[in-house]
Every structure is written in C-alpha cells, then in structure tokens.
Description:
The protein is α+β, with helices and mostly antiparallel strands and 320 residues long. The protein folds into two domains: 10-99, 2-Layer Sandwich (Phosphorylase Kinase, domain 1); 102-253, 2-Layer Sandwich (D-amino Acid Aminotransferase, Chain A, domain 1). 26% of the residues lie in helices and 23% in strands. The chain has six helices and 16 strands. Helix 1 runs parallel beside helix 6 (294-312) and helix 5 (268-274) runs antiparallel to helix 6. It is globular, with a radius of gyration of 20 Å.
Amino acid sequence: xxRDTSLPHHLPIYSGKVRDLYAPLDPNTGIVNEKALLLVASxxxxxxxxxxxxxxxxxxxxxxxxxxxxxxxxxxxxxxxxLSTDVPHAVSGRAVYVRRLSMLPIECIARAYLTGGGLKxxxxxxxxxxxxxxxxLQDGSRLETxxxxxxxxxxxxxxxxxxxxxxxxxxxxxPLAARVRDLTIAILAxxxxxxxxxxxxxxxxxxxxxVDPADLDLDIDDPIEWSSxxxxxxxxxxxxxxxTPDSSRFWRADQWQVGQPQTSYDKQVLRDWLSTEASGxxxxxxxxxxxxxxxxxxxxxxxxxxxxEALTGAPFNPPS
Length: 320
C-alpha cells in the first residue's frame, strides 16, 4: 500500500480505500490549519469492497489531473473545493489542497443510461430510486433525461442504500434537496455534452457537495441542521473527485449497444478477471481477492490513461 505517512508538517486524519486526508500544520507552531486539507489520491484500487494488493501505477495522478480538468469545465455550474496544486514533492501530481468542508450526508448520483444496480432495481419495480421509467428498457438504454438516484452515505464497511427524493427531502429539506438534485443532473448533462464529442458516454456519476461551516458561523465539527438551510443563502461546493472512472461509468461511444455490457474505461477489466476461474477467487467467500496478474494491472492502467487523454486532448505527464 502507498499511504504517505511521513509528510512533514501534515497530520494524517483519514485513510480511505483509495484516498488519504491530511491536515496541514503551521511549520513554526505546529497548529492545525482548520480551513484546509491535503487530499491525496493513491494508486490503490478497490473492487467488491476490498482494497486489492495490486496498485495501478499512476492511477492517483491520472484521476487527480482528470478531476482538476473537470473542475474547470464545471466552474460556472458549481464552485469547487480546490485551493492549490502546490503540494509536497512526495505527492506531487496526485494531491491537492482543498477547502475543509462539512459534507452533505447523502451520495448524489445521476444516471443518463440504465445499467448496474439501477438496472436491477428497474427490472424488479420499473423504477430507480422511486423514479418511474418507461417499460422495455434494457442494459445500456439511454434515458430520455438524466435522473437523480441518490443513496445513503453508509459508514465504512457497510453498503449504501438507494434513496427516493422524498427521503432526501426528509434529510435535507425540500429546497436544498431540489437544489442538490438539479445540480447533480446538470453536472452529468454538461459532462456528457463534453465527453460525447470525445468518444465517451458517461452512464452515471456520483458527486459530493459540501458547505463551508464558516458561512454558517459554525466550526468544522459543529453539527448542521441540514433541513433548515436555505440553498439561496449557502454556497454548495463541489468536492472530492469529479467525473473520474472511479466515480462514474465511462463507455466507448462507438461500441455502445443496448442490451449488452458496454466496453468501459474503468476497473471493470479487473472485476471481469476476478470473476473468472483463473483468479481462483470466490466472491461468496469472506477472503480477500488475490493479487492481479501484470497484464490485468497494465490493461487497467491503459483504460484510465485512455479516458484521460481522450477527454482532455492532452498527453498524461507522470509526476517526476
């Protein structure tokens, strides 16, 4: 694993499956900067709720640079959390300093195509997160308009559960819930306008929003009564990674075909290998997956790299 545990003047405060957070310290006093965080994207990769023993070279840098590129494309829709890319050399290219925010307690997901868990729910009920959809849709069907399909933000080790919009209103209040819904859908719609011209379809995406507690005269650890917030009086800030193959489903537009699995730019290639007899792994068992063979590692890296270069139109420059 590549957790950076020895960054001078930075206090480790959280280590997730693929990203780590540090609080900057004043080099003279050692006092924590309460307004900022160092967000580091590692080369770790997860599948089926396990962090694999095989990192994907340059993955953290590819996804960090892709998020920064998307932030520029979306800035007129929502401000983002980025403060600076001038980070310690040890994490150069795969880390950013960001605003320290209070995060909304739901996962904001929008879908433009039907697949994955949304497809399973549709096949069972004709709806996705309570949104009724036309009959006869198949795997890969394009939806008439993108839909908001939020989920709970489950604690580590537990699974997120789909939420209806009414349930989101109970948590956030209807005005803020409507703002979050509309903004999530607008982000996916904008992203598909851009990506489709570059040969990529974005089937769905998860985005995260936060608010600056200082705007509410609160400290970072103070609880927030979300349902009391007026979205016209508080700024929703786009946070975490944005529109990467880890948070979204990217498909090759020229190979899109309804009724079958699509060719993707994400970690589906390693999921496919783990599902084969060659891996020797049974998902039903409690044990972790085995290390990935070198060809699967390289193919996964190539898919991430291809997505980055197709979207941005620029070559990827690995951190020195």
